[in-house]
Amino acid sequence: MNTLTPHHPSLAAWLFLTDQALVPGHPAGDALRGWWEGGTALGLTETVPPWPTELPAPVADPAALPVEPQLLAARQRLLPGGFEMLLVAAFHDTVVVSVLLAPNDDHTTWEELTTRWHDAVPRLPAAVPGVLGTAELFFGEVPGPTLAGASNAIGPLLTGAVPAPGPAGAPADAGAQGEIRLWDLPTAAAPGFIRHRRLLAVTAEADTSQLSRWAWQGDVAGAPPAARHLLQSARLRHQCDVLRRELTDLAELTDLAERACADVRQAMPATLRSAAQLTTLESALVGLATAQAQVARALHGLHGLDIALGACEESLHLADAHVGSLLDSELRLARWARAQTRAVRDSLTAADEQLTVSTQQALAAADRLQRARRDRLTLIQTSTLGAMVLALTAVQSLAYRVPLPGPVRPALIAFLASTALVLPTLALPRAEAGLLRSFGHRIDLMLFAAAGAAGGWLAASVVGVLLHPPAPTALTLGSAALTALVSAIARARTFRHGPRAGIIGSRVGRTP
Q: What is the C-alpha to C-alpha distance for residues 504 and 362, in angstroms, rounded to an integer?
């Protein structure tokens, strides 16, 4: 097969980074310095007035940088009839390293230029945070009659001149008037390059200035259209890689939400009757709350990703309106990514709604149990106090006198009064009483200690009456202190071993 040898073959290479490359110690900064040192190895050490010849100092906050695109550093190597250049520019929230090798020598080939550059630049790891991608553009001139021939015939003629694999199919048109023939070359395995793109662009000798502006010099919009297109393509492919990595985790998150809802339904029988059921339901609600928080974070991240994908898709249209079918692959990728994002977001939104409904149902069931417990406690208190008031009324009405010795009467009155205070709580099972620790447990301990002290006082008084003479004051005080301590410790153990008040205790209400 015949091979078409282009005139003035040139190579442009790009490294696209996030602005984190300017943050001290970030891995993307190492990639930036690696390409800068690669240019130094190629002899790109001369100044490009008025731009700095050294990389800018790292900044702690890239957001503080100017929003307008700006050139951060530049170096070049002057050649007879040609030149080679290395630029570092900031475009909004990205940093772009651009390398041009244009010796303007027909004896140089694209293969030689590629070898020179690949030998000089250090290889990047398989994945570097903050690196969006890399790209190469092979461009040159071909005779006008050849370019005017059948479009499908040009690509095979250039196959031997381009580092394999070469162009295939008909080219796309680029440039203001469509003077440039453009191919999206297949990307061979390129260790050390990330999300690598390769383009081939040729034009007739009469349109060399158009090709130069399109590939390197730039147009009225500033950056060259090739760089703008490849930058948006790198951003899009980077976002798609992020989405692919997260799809599995997002699917697992949906399953987690469904399992959490199932656990709550299982822990929520038709009728809640005991504190043990309340504790089981609370444990399931903890898992439900965790799943709901993770779903909320995932939805927030998907919203941001969808915005970024939409911006990339729109920017692809604005980057260059004359790249024809070259946009097709990027646009298909953008549509796929946004469709995947919407599908996952819809799934997570449904899961979030299910989590919300399950939470509301569980909290409503817990609230019913809490109200039932409060009603039972109120009933016990009312019944106990009513019975004591009725008994005292009957004693007073019937003038009934209990034959008790004088020293026992005050102790008995104190004991009965303290018992009336703590009896409603004692009527509850230990596990349910333990839930009371979320409300006034210090007061509760004091009441039980008082009841214990009254019991000790009563016991000491009875013993004193039986032994003749009455018990000494020290014995009475000691007995009261001992029984108060025992009662308080026993009550505290109930708090320690009872079920904890967590989500339900904090969100439904406290037990009075």
A: 9
82 bridge partner residues: 79
- 79-82 — which CB contacts under 8 Å span 24+ positions? 79/103, 79/104, 81/105, 82/8
Rounded to whole angstroms, the Cα distance separating 221 from 214 reads: 11
E strands, 353-411, are: none
3-state SS assignment for residue 91: strand
pTM: predicted TM-score of the whole model, two decimal places: 0.65
C-alpha–C-alpha distance, residues 404 and 112, integer Å:
118
Burial track 310-334 (b if 16+ CB lie within 10 A, e otherwise): eebbebbeebbebbeebbeebeebb
Structure tokens at 330: 């990027």
pLDDT in tens, 36-75: 999 999 999 999 988 998 988 777 777 766 667 788 899 9
Looking up tokens 């987690």 gives 256
Query: Coil, strand or helix: which one is 70?
Result: strand
CA 439 to chain centre: 37
User: With b meaning 16 or more CB within 10 Å and e meaning fewer, what string describes 396-405?
Assistant: eeeeeeeeee
Say how many Å lie between the first and final Cα of the chain, rounded.
94
Report angle CA 427, 429, 432 to the nearest 5 degrees. 115
Which of 159, 163, 153 shows the shortest CA–CA distance to 113? 163
Q: Which two tokens stand for residue 326?
A: 């070259």
**CA–CA gap between residue 235 and residue 16 (Å, rounded):** 8
Residues whose CB is less than 8 angstroms from the CB of residue 335 and which lie 6 or more positions away in sequence, other chains included: 313
Give the tens place of pLDDT for each residue, 482-509: 888 888 888 777 655 544 433 334 333 3
Determine the pLDDT at residue 100: 93
**Strand partners of residue 18:** 94
CB 77 within 8 A of CB 95: no
Phi-psi region of 130 (alpha: psi -120 to 50; beta: other; left: phi over 0): left
Angle at which helices 408-426 and 441-467 cross, to 10°: 150
**Which position has the token pair 């019913």?**
368
Q: Is 82 helix (H, G, I), strand (E, B) or coil?
A: strand
Closest CA to 9 of 137, 97, 183: 137
Cross-strand pairs, 71: 89
The span from the CA of 482 to the CA of 476, in Å, is: 10
Give all strands (DSSP E) within 374-498, no chain letters.
Answer: none
Count of Cβ atoms closer than 10 Å to residue 74 Cβ: 20
